[in-house]
Amino acid sequence: MPTANPIKRTNRIAIVVVVLVLAVVVVLAKTSRQPLSDPQFAAKAAQGSLAEVELGRLAAQKSQSETVRAFGERMATDHTKSKANLEKIAAQQNITLPEDLDKDAQKNYESFRNCPVRTLIGLMS
Question: Comparing C-alpha atoms, which of 91, 62, 93, 57 is closest to residue 77?
């Protein structure tokens, strides 16, 4: 069903993407106040990249806006490259990186994955 104002609809979808990205920020913000060691920092960065890749893919799959789909695809591509670079450095330093989302990130991802776009847009209104 077409909307009366396609610009507003695109803006709302863009807001949904921003919310997805902010979910990643929340996951990364749940760290202790102590400085991170190199392995801890690398693991957090890898988790962030994993989450960005998954959320980008989700935005690309769920969005009805070509702009948001392109943004999601770009986000997934860029963070896949970032994670590959991090993996090279971690291997040189004998640091093991996580291969899957941690429990909190997976929970956030699942909540977004299972939530219809229409509902997400409603939350932003």
Answer: 57
3-state secondary structure of 93: coil
Cα separation, 106 vs 100, whole angstroms: 9
Please give the Cα distance from 48 to 102 (Å, whole number): 10
Q: Where are the domains of the chain?
A: 6-30+37-124
Tally of CB atoms within 10 A around 105: 23
Q: How far is residue 104's CA from residue 18's CA, in Å, rounded to a whole number?
A: 18
What's the number of CA atoms in the CB half-sphere (13 Å) around residue 13? 22
Q: Encode pLDDT of 3-59 as tens digits.
A: 555 556 666 666 666 666 666 666 666 655 678 888 988 898 899 889 889 888 888
- Count CB neighbours of 110 within 10 A: 11
DSSP letter for 96, please. P
Residues near 123 by beta carbon (within 8 Å), at least 6 away in sequence: 19
Q: How far apart are CA 51 and CA 99, in angstroms?
A: 11
